[in-house]
Amino acid sequence: MDVDKYIASGVLELYVAGLLNEDENLEVHRNAEEHPRIKEEIRSIEAAILALSKSAAYKDSGSRDFQDVIRRIGDKNEARVVPLPRKRATWIQYTGWAAALVLGLGLGWVYLQNTELKNQINLRSHEIQVLEDQIFEARNSLDKTRELLGTLRDREITVIALGGQEAAPSAYAKAYWNRAEEKVFIDAQGLPEPPPGMVYQVWSLKLSPLTPTSIGLLEDFTTDANRVFALSNPNDTEAFGITLEPAGGSETPTLEQLFTLGVVAS
Questions:
Q1: Number of C-beta neighbours around residue 49 at 10 A
Q2: Which range of residues forms the domain containing residue 18?
């Protein structure tokens, strides 16, 4: 702990003035117990305020005693007592009160400034964290885009266009098949959003006889902005088809819900 910085922060003056809350008072007390210099500084501040208070107080106790004696004498006889003029407060006393007032105002101002500074620091910290999160997400998205473009531009990639079928004539998609890596990327940008409880399923097809094999689901379709999905395809595919199936997929394709179909060029 930087004791000098802590003493210069003004928190000890606020502690002596009683302007801290309970938790802050306990923190100052613990620091004072651990660091003798802090405890000595608190005593010094208390002594200074006490000295100011004493110098500002009117020392009129003797005057009250004298008035009491006169009153008692007046009770015993009716002799007229000429009142003595009251002694005026000296400029030193006024200076003491003014110094005490200035000190109190100064402590209050320091407390308000510290509170405002803490609020500003917390706000800036939150804004910086939000910005860092946004940069991190954008950087990750950019890295994924570059990786995808590099994959799709590979010379080993076979591109298959999937045209719309009777269930959705205006639908379309593309399959980017890398035979060597046994991967296929489905660009489903041309498919409409599936209804609730439904999901798109991709099929690898052998045409003679017609033999469908599921290679995966296009999950998180509505939340994926790019709508490009990577699937594993170790099959000797002759065509690709996409059907709309109940959530979780189906064992065999629902041909009435065949949205797109494309044949691999021989």
A1: 18
A2: 3-127
In a domain, 149, yes or no: no
pLDDT value for 41: 87
pLDDT score recorded for residue 70: 46
Buried/exposed 67-87: b ≥16 CB within 10 Å, e otherwise: eeeeeeeeeeeeeeeeeeeee
**Residue 182 in domain:** yes
* Same domain as 244, residue 205: yes
Interatomic CA distance for residues 236 and 118, integer angstroms: 65
74-130 confidence digits (pLDDT tens): 554 454 544 545 545 555 555 666 666 667 677 777 777 778 777 878 776 776 676
